[in-house]
Structure formats: structure tokens, C-alpha cells
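Run log // design_07
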């Protein structure tokens, strides 16, 4: 199954394209360099024709309402790629901007703001062992999530991952599993290098299980470093403050969030990989004028 994930995703994509279940956005890409950092500004070209829930955020504070309107619980069958382990399924992102964009969704409803569990890391480890990819998680509305049902996202890496992850060269400078704040990155964060071979696809079942346990341990270490501790309230359990998690096969990064947007421009985990998505040319100009580094700093804690 492992090696087939992305082949299967490509086949489902082709069929979903033809049936119009998949509603991709076109975006132009501009490369911007700031103090040696590479950023990509992606400007949507056909936003007027389709409306994604990502851009029509409504107040989804009510848990009941979100379960009712939940597109992940009873998913669109044409977007289904495969089940991953006993608790997760992979769906195509219906409104994708980037190619080969999967959602790793829990089969039962779980809140997006709840802490990631070992089961989530088992599934994530399986997906990241299939091929190099960028995985990310928008932990809560303030971190850019538009759906309350727990979903980790994966984008398959092109041959050169730097073309997808502008800040990859800085993050690949990490060389151990000690959480650090890189001086080169302009926002609050903690990051570490993942052990070599963690996603080796030839691991036995037991070895893969151990690797997933290690992955969760490193996630816990990063969030503890940033003081992102679980808390509970009367309605929900084990919530976390807003944060973004990003990882490749080589590194893991956690960014605590103070706000969801800058001047009306929403920023999710992808922004901290170096990719800024804007709705139109005016917003692209605004981003360049303000400076991307400054924007990222202003929305991290
Ligand atoms: P986020 O905005 O980070 O919460 O990610 C949720 C993603 O789900 C967005 O990127 C949407 O494009 C995507 N999405 C919304 N509705 C559906 C749906 N019915 N099926 C699959 N993906 C969806």
C-alpha cells in the first residue's frame, strides 16, 4: 500500500477532475527574495468562479453545527483515495491550489484544536514514508484552519523540494534533534532535524511503529519548548493553543500563532514554509510592500 499512495492519488485526481468533483484553483507564482530567504507569492486567478470554504469562513464555533456541515465525516466519494491504518482516511483536497494535495482525516470526528495523538502520527508516518512530501497542520482557526474536523495535509514534493518549500534550505541546516530557533527565520518557532532513515519505506511493521512513536515524541518536545501545553475546558478535552506544524522527511517545525491574518490576508502553515497565498494582485502588492518576514513575525506569537 505504502508505495501506491501517490499513484492512487494521481488516478483519483484524474477521475475527480473529469467529473468536476475536484475544483482546482489556478495561481500565478512570483518568487520574492528577502534577506537571503526565498518566498513564493501565489496569486489566485479564478477565485470569482468558485468559492472554497477556505475563503468563506463562517463562524463555526458551535461543535454541533460543524459536525452537521462536516465535509470530512461523510466525504465526497469521488475524492476518497484510501484508508490509512484503522483510524484515518486520505481525501483529495477539493479546492486545491497546489497539485497532489491530500487531506489525512480522522475517520471519527475529532476537533482540529485537539492535540495530535499517537494514532495521528502512525498515519502521518505511513504517508510520509510513501514519498517525500510537505506535511502540515493548521491547529485551530487562528492557525488558518477552515474545518473543525481533524485533518493533517500533505503535498507531494517535486524533484527539488525547494520549489515547494522556499524556506527548506534554512530548515535543512538543522542537524540534530534538539529544538532550536533558527536565527535565519524571521518568526517565532522551534524546529529540529528528524533522525535519518525515520521514513525508510523498508522498515518492518514494528520498526515503523517505533519510528511513529519517535515522531510524536519529537512533536511533543517542540510544543513543550514553546509552552504549547494541553488544556481542557468544560466542552472539549485536550485542546492546544493555536499553532502550525510543518514537517518533511528531514525536519519538523512548530510555530505558535497570535493571529490568523495580516491586513485581511489569511496565513496558514504554508506561509511558514515560504508560500503566501493571496486572492488578487492588490494583496500580492500589499504583501511585498509590508515585507513577508515582517508579516510572518506579526502573526506568530
Ligand atoms: P484548512 O483550511 O486548513 O482547514 O483545510 C481544509 C481544506 O479542506 C481546505 O484546503 C479546503 O480546500 C478543503 N475542503 C473543503 N471542503 C472540502 C470537501 N468537501 N472535500 C475535500 N476537501 C475539502
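design_07 sequence
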Amino acid at each position: 500500500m505504502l508505495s501506491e499512495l501517490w499513484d492512487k492519488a494521481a488516478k483519483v485526481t484524474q477521475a475527480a477532475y473529469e467529473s468536476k468533483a475536484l475544483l482546482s484553483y489556478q495561481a500565478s507564482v512570483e518568487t520574492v527574495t528577502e534577506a537571503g530567504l526565498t518566498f513564493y507569492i501565489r496569486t489566485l486567478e479564478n477565485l470569482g468562479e468558485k468559492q472554497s470554504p477556505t475563503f468563506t469562513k463562517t463562524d463555526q464555533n458551535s461543535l454541533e453545527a460543524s459536525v452537521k456541515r462536516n465535509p470530512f465525516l461523510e466525504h465526497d466519494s469521488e475524492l476518497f483515495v484510501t484508508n490509512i491504518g484503522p483510524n484515518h482516511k486520505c481525501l483529495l483536497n477539493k479546492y486545491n491550489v497546489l497539485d497532489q494535495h491530500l487531506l489525512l482525516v480522522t475517520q471519527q470526528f475529532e476537533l482540529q484544536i485537539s492535540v495530535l495523538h499517537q494514532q495521528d502520527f502512525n498515519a502521518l508516518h505511513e504517508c510520509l514514508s510513501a514519498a517525500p512530501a510537505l506535511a502540515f497542520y493548521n491547529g485551530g482557526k487562528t492557525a488558518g484552519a477552515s474545518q473543525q474536523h481533524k485533518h493533517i495535509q500533505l503535498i507531494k514534493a517535486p524533484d527539488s523540494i525547494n520549489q515547494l518549500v522556499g524556506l527548506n534550505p534554512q530548515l535543512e541546516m538543522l542537524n540534530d534533534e534538539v529544538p532550536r530557533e533558527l536565527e535565519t527565520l524571521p518568526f517565532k518557532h522551534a524546529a529540529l532535524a528528524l533522525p535519518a532513515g525515520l521514513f525508510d519505506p523498508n522498515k518492518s511493521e514494528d520498526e515503523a511503529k517505533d519510528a511513529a512513536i519517535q515522531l510524536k515524541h519529537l512533536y511533543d518536545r517542540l510544543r513543550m519548548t514553546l509552552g504549547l501545553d494541553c488544556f481542557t475546558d468544560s466542552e472539549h478535552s485536550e485542546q492546544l493553543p493555536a499553532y502550525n506544524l510543518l514537517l518533511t522527511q528531514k525536519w519538523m517545525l512548530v510555530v505558535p500563532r497570535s493571529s490568523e491574518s495580516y491586513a485581511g490576508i489569511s496565513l496558514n502553515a504554508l506561509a511558514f514554509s515560504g508560500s503566501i497565498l493571496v486572492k488578487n494582485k492588490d494583496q500580492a502588492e500589499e504583501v511585498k510592500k509590508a515585507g513577508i518576514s515582517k508579516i510572518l513575525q506579526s502573526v506568530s506569537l
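The chain has one domain: 2-299.
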